[in-house]
Design a protein that fits this description.
single chain, 434 residues, alpha/beta, 2 domains, five-stranded antiparallel beta sheet, 18% helix, 44% strand
Length: 434
């Protein structure tokens, strides 16, 4: 009996041991499974985190590309930071799709735009982080404004000396520049060569200085004495045309000289041929005061001395000068406060034809105008103040305290200067990495 019981106990002990062993194996298997699942979930979580970071990098690349589009640049952009980097390619969507939306018959122009004259670009941005990649495709519109960027630009040499200064303002915000100087009084020349821009004396260019495309700013821009250029010195990124002036074939409403000496005269809107326009001794010439419309005057000899020319803001005046042009002390032209309807420099454009060899602006005077004389050598001396823009064959500013202020609201139709002012994405999507 005892032996039988002992034998039975041994069998029961073995069964318990076997059961315990089986339980241990099962528990170990479960534990290993939990560890594997936990590791797997950890890897998945880490991969998701890395992919999310990579997507953020791709978004940063798209943002960088949109900023570059505001600088009118496109192409491939690459940037490294930390352990990641992005690569971006931008291209004209209309051009690449062979669409001629602006109706010019060409689809191979880098500036192909839509019907509203907006540039349509596609940005492909790829974010890279370790072995991970994420890609985005963003379509954007680039919005432009037509502006003129230079207070003074010439086909040839520019020499600014004395105590002269350039700066900028916006006539839509203030009447007189000194009320709000913006520091964008840029100068430029379409030529290249040693010293084509020379800033000396105590002259101060509050803005950038540009030489022609392909020029060397180091040698082409010379700064002497106490002269200074506050902005960058660079070559133009593209060629800039300053086309010569051609007088339209007007049908003239009136023909004859206008010679005023301590007198006043008013011209209504219309077209005038004036062989000699001469104003002296406190004379006043009102162009369109009390009217609305456009006045075109073709002048052979144009001189103003101690006199005024007044233009209201609802009248556009174009004066074409063919032989001689001069203004001297005490002259005020297109003062915004001279009439009930305030004007801006955009209301007056003074144009010189190729037969106008020289123009001089001297003495203490104020002129609010776009002065476009691309074939004419221009001399500005004394205490002149010119608000608007000056374009010439060459330009000398010196012998006094002349002040040249770019009106940043000014538009010169004869010079195409489109400037991007905004970018808006119109579609955004993740794509497979190219």
């Amino acid at each position: 009996m005892m032996k039988s019981r002992k034998r039975r106990l041994r069998k029961e002990d073995g069964a318990v041991f076997l059961a315990a062993l089986i339980c241990i194996v099962i528990l170990m298997a479960l534990a290993m499974g939990l560890i594997v699942v936990s590791l797997s979930r950890g890897n998945v979580s880490e991969a998701g985190y890395q992919l999310e970071r990579t997507l953020y990098i791709a978004e940063a690349g798209a943002d960088a590309a949109m900023f570059e589009l505001l600088l009118e640049e496109d192409g491939i952009i690459e940037e490294d930071f930390g352990s990641g980097h992005y690569t971006v390619n931008t291209y004209n969507l209309l051009e690449n799709n062979g669409i001629d939306d602006n109706g010019d018959g060409e689809v191979d122009e880098p500036s192909e735009t839509d019907a509203d004259d907006n540039l349509i670009m596609r940005i492909v941005s790829v974010g890279h982080l370790n072995q991970y990649q994420q890609a985005l495709e963003v379509d954007v519109k680039v919005f432009f404004i037509e502006t003129f960027d230079y207070i003074a630009i010439a086909r040839g040499n520019i020499n600014i000396t004395g105590n002269c200064m350039t700066n900028s303002y916006k006539s839509s915000l203030v009447d007189y520049p000194q009320q709000q100087l913006l520091g964008d009084g840029h100068i430029g020349t379409t030529s290249i060569g040693p010293g084509v821009i020379d800033v000396g004396g105590n002259a101060l260019v509050n803005g950038d200085a540009y030489v022609g495309m392909g020029g060397d700013p180091v040698s082409d821009i010379v700064i002497g004495g106490s002269g200074d250029i506050t902005g960058k010195k660079a070559a133009m990124p593209e060629e800039m045309a300053l086309p010569s002036v051609v007088v339209p074939d007007f049908e003239y409403d009136e023909t004859g000289n206008i010679i005023l000496n301590n007198k006043e005269k008013t011209l209504a809107p219309g077209n005038y041929y004036v062989p000699k326009l001469q104003l002296k001794a406190n004379s006043v010439l009102n162009l369109g005061v009390g009217y609305e419309g456009e006045i075109n005057i073709v002048v052979e000899d144009f001189s103003v001395q101690s006199a005024e020319i007044n233009i209201p803001g609802n009248v556009q005046v174009n004066i074409y000068v063919t032989k001689s042009l001069s203004t001297t002390a005490g002259t005020v032209i297109n003062d915004p406060n001279a009439t009930d309807v305030r004007s801006t420099p955009s209301n007056l454009t003074i144009l010189g034809t190729p037969t106008l060899a020289k123009a001089t602006f001297t003495g203490t005077s104020r002129i609010y105008a776009a002065i476009y004389l691309p074939d004419t050598d221009i001399t500005i001396t004394g205490n002149q103040e010119i608000m608007g823009a000056v374009v010439g064959s060459s330009l000398y500013v010196g012998q006094g305290d002349a002040r040249l202020y770019l009106d940043e609201d000014l538009v010169l139709d004869m010079v195409d200067r489109r400037r991007p002012i905004g970018v808006r994405s119109v579609s955004w999507r993740e794509i497979a990495s190219p």
